[in-house]
Amino acid sequence: MNPDYLIAILASTAGAATPLVLASTGELVAERSGVLNLGLEGIMLVGAVAGFAVTLHGGSPLLGLLAAMAAGMAMALVFAVLVLTLQTNQVATGLALTLFGLGLSAFLGRDLVGQTVAPLPHLSIPLLSNLPFVGPLLFRFDALVYVSLALVALVGWVLARTRLGLAIRAVGEAPHSAHAIGMPVLKLRYATVLFGGALAGLGGAYLSLALTPMWVEGMTAGRGWIALAQVVFATWKPRGLLLGAYLFGGVTVLQFHGQGLGLAIPSEFLSMLPYLATIVVLVVICRNPQTILLNKPMSLGQNFKAD
């Protein structure tokens, strides 16, 4: 295979994986606190349209990214109020949020279809960017690719090494016991849900500002659900998120390059491959219940009400 072609495939994999890394990292933090948010798909779509609209009319990608995070947090706040304060069912509320996000994003983006913006600029690191093979493979991405990797490392460190991480894990494992020793269970859960919403909105904005710099209705194409599946794939450990996201990203990129590689496979089957790969991996992992139960927060999906 031509080295330049191989570099293009590997570099494209990082771009395809980045929105999944962002969304699943935020969801992992929320789930470690015991909150299951199935509304990621809707949040990502609202973040995508908000980021695109602000960038298009304001001319600043940074403002667009901030707007996407704010929109994601607003959607997550609606979810948090319903499940944490009003004690609604987390699964049903998350599904409703996804449907709401689908409709809201289509409504907000009805006049944006067909318009484009300049993609997020790639960083050029002196000397390193010009290295043969390694330069374009590691040092010519946009800033969010590096931010997503840093966030995974930061979240892993916070959850494992800090008092805040211990508190989040305690709330996710035994919220009543955590409340009994004075931990602010609801405040921590609100914070983690808003953090997850911000990253999901940012992941959506990456789709409309970098991966495909335009607005297309339903452009997440199920990535919110894939991000949810990746948390299970990672068994609620941050380092596993990268493997899952880059696996999905690699299969996604291969479907686009399949015909160019001479694969005599129907395009419809190639389009199925990323989702089929995710299902297969989840089935393999879930065959051993102990693997899942070892790290799954005990109170995941369960509402908490202070006595």
UniProtKB/TrEMBL annotation:
It is a multi-pass membrane protein. One of its GO terms (molecular function) is transmembrane transporter activity. It comes from the Bacteria. The chain crosses the membrane at residues 6-23, 35-56, 62-84, 91-109, 137-160, 190-209, 269-286. Keywords: Cell membrane, Membrane, Transmembrane, Transmembrane helix. Its main location: membrane. InterPro entries: ABC_transp_permease. It is found in: Cell membrane. Pfam families: BPD_transp_2. This is ABC transporter permease. The lineage of its organism: Bacteria, Pseudomonadati, Pseudomonadota, Betaproteobacteria, Burkholderiales.
